[in-house]
Amino acid sequence: MIVGVIGAGTMGSGIAQAFAMTEGYEVRLCDIKEEFAQAGFAKIQKNINFLVGKEKITKEAGDKILSKIKVGLSNICTDCDLVVEVALEKMEIKKEIFKELENIVPKDCIFASNTSSLSITRISEGLDRPVVGMHFFNPADRMKLVEVIGGKNTPAELVKKIEEIAVEIGKTPVQVKEAPGFVVNRILIPMINEAINVWDAGTADAEGVDTAMVLGCAHPMGPLHLADLIGLDICLAIMEVIHNETGDDKYIPAPKLKELVAAGKLGKKTGEGIFSYK
Ligand SMILES: NC(=O)c1ccc[n+]([C@@H]2O[C@H](COP(=O)([O-])OP(=O)(O)OC[C@H]3O[C@@H](n4cnc5c(N)ncnc54)[C@H](O)[C@@H]3O)[C@@H](O)[C@H]2O)c1
Q1: What residues are annotated to the active site?
Q2: What is the mean pLDDT of residues 174-199?
Q3: What is the pTM of this model?
Q4: Which residue's C-alpha comes closest to atom 7 of ligand 1?
Q5: Which of 35, 92, 107, 219 lies 20 to 30 Å from 59 when distance is taken between CA atoms?
Q6: What is the pLDDT of residue 151?
Q7: Once rounded to an integer, what is the mean pLDDT over residues 227-236?
Q8: In what helix (H) or strand (E) does residue 3 lie, and over which residues does it extend?
């Protein structure tokens, strides 16, 4: 199966790696600029070198995985059986990407979106085929969960097909109904938002908030470090979707989260967020 991954950022590179590491899968890793797609590929190279260094895989196996990934713009997706859209969490961008792909990919190519919170039904409006949600978790090459979401027009067979593909690439699918934030982000992102409010109120410093949640709730990582790992822009976008869709003010994004995003401090990917990575 040939899989087009559209967007080679934090998630796109991990998703591309997960597919390329599976026998029988090839990947077309795409972005809006060739150099962005190359940067995504460089991240995969680094991960593969790490696995080779740790003797988890042989050098030959590593080279084979990398050779299965072709890098470029979305016009290299002409032979794809499946495309997974992994661009920004903005409805218009996702719709535009699929509209453009209609004229590039084969007629029977499956459209899947890695959206964290947006309506699959609305993404598919105006397209010549249904869309299915295939929601991976960060880091996508290692995290086992894939939420599989059907929109109003997504055939049950398509949901089933994506579940099968998820299993093939070593993931555990969970079928989820269309709802703002689905399951994980509806619970996780408001918790992260509240952790930011608690930190901003000075109840504890950032390390204190995280240590409290790691030791007090047995979370593997504190919510503030997790926010930086996810990307603060992504956390904000998800919070806004949940707030807009539910109309419930308990989901108002934390002012401090908005302030950090406006300052371009997006977390680990920009070298600075709640914590500094420089
Ligand atoms: N970060 C997470 O933990 C996480 C987890 C699950 C799902 N998601 C979702 O995955 C998607 C991507 O998130 P991310 O964290 O990888 O973001 P990111 O900012 O790291 O990467 C997004 C990439 O998409 C590219 N892009 C933007 N417009 C494009 C277009 N028109 N065509 C092709 N590429 C385009 C950007 O250049 C960038 O490289 C979002 O919808 C997000 O909600 C994120």
Answers
A1: 116, 135, 147, 185
A2: 96
A3: 0.93
A4: 116
A5: 35
A6: 95
A7: 96
A8: strand 2-6
Q: Which protein residues touch ligand 1 with a CB less than 6 Å away?
A: 6-12, 30-32, 36, 86-89, 93, 97, 114-116, 135-138, 230-231, 234, 269
Count the neighbouring beta carbons within 10 Å of the beta carbon of residue 272: 18
Which of 234, 239, 265 for mutating ligand 1's site (highest number of atoms within 8 Å of CB)?
234
Same fold, 2-177 and 184-270: no
DSSP 76: G
HEC states along 78-110?
A: CCCCEEEECCCCCHHHHHHHHHHHHCCCCCCCE
Tens-place pLDDT, residues 10-27: 999 999 999 999 999 999
Quick: pLDDT tens for 67-107: 999 999 999 999 999 999 999 989 999 999 999 999 999 99
Which residue's CA is the closest to the ligand 1 atom numbered 33?
A: 31
**For the domain bounded by 2-177, which CATH number is listed?**
3.40.50.720
- The SS3 of residue 216 is helix
Asked if residue 75 lies in contact with residue 105, where contact means CB atoms within 8 angstroms, the answer is no
Architecture of the domain defined by 184-270: Orthogonal Bundle (1.10)
As annotated, the binding site for NAD(+) includes 7-12, 31, 89, 94, 116, 138, 269
Cα(115) to ligand 1 centroid in Å equals: 9
The ranges assigned to domains in the chain are 2-177, 184-270
What pLDDT is attached to residue 117? 87
ipTM score assigned to the predicted complex: 0.99
Whether 157 has a pLDDT exceeding 90, the answer reads yes
